[in-house]
Amino acid sequence: MDNDFKKISWFPGHMAKSLRLIEDSTGLADVIIYVLDARAPMACFNPELNRLAQNKPVLYVLNKADLAEDKSTAEWLKYFAKLGGGAMKLDAKITNSAKALVPHVLKLAAARIAKYADKAVNYKVKGIVVGVPNCGKSTLINNIVGGAKAKVGNKPGVTRGKQWLRISDNFDIMDSPGVLWGNISDQAAARRLAFIGCVKDEILDTAGLTKLLIAELQNLGYGGLLIKRYKLETNVFDVKDGNLAESVFEKIARKRGCLLSGGVIDGERAAALILDEFRAGVLGKMTLEQSDK
Fold this sequence. Notes:
Layout: H1 13-26, E1 31-37, H2 47-52, E2 58-63, H3 70-81, E3 86-89, H4 101-108, H5 110-117, E4 125-130, H6 137-145, E5 163-168, E6 171-175, H7 187-195, H8 206-219, H9 223-230, H10 244-255, H11 267-279
Parallel strand pairs: 1-2, 1-4, 2-3, 4-6
Antiparallel strand pairs: 5-6
Helix pairs in contact: 7-8, 8-10, 8-11, 10-11
């Protein structure tokens, strides 16, 4: 299969059901906590979820910031701050790091809190966490509550139903299923979603996807990180003829012993290796999109 992402079924039945669940839940929420992958925040910026915010205040959380370039993340924070609401970066894998979002949420709900305070009522703010699959929503929630109270997985599509969790006397939070939008015409955004693991690898040609990733990283100036990680020749990207990405892919496969009998490249194994190391940040800090400010 090729990697023409227009051919992918982005919106299967469970996605439609998940979208309805989110639509119902946002009506109950005071603040939308919009989790974006810091490496490709605009690719994660789902127009459907944006509509479902229903004019509620939004806190944009650039998660997995430890995997992205710091300078680029700082520019993206400025961009999202200009949209109104609030913006913060996060590495939800660091214990208690997500607790930093609580004051942001309470600030965004300050008017509502004050309204009830006038009636001598201690209002409990409700925040719903939304985002595309595998952006780290459940990890964020587990971080903020201090334990594995929300289902977490390393594959997209783990969370399925409503889970309201008590954070404090004045703040409840709810996880939501990750949702991709139904009709994505921006092929560059679709590729980036696949690169960072928001699309199930099972429905993709992972070898083809990895070659696209290699080409993308080279175009973004990250070729040197690939050379360093896989101990490639320094001139490996100087090839003028043929498919450069395919050539580099094969060289990495041979370096790492991803071979079948007869010395044939094991493309699936090589792809899994490179994709896993990219997604885990082993190759280095990388940002696939730059803010135009």
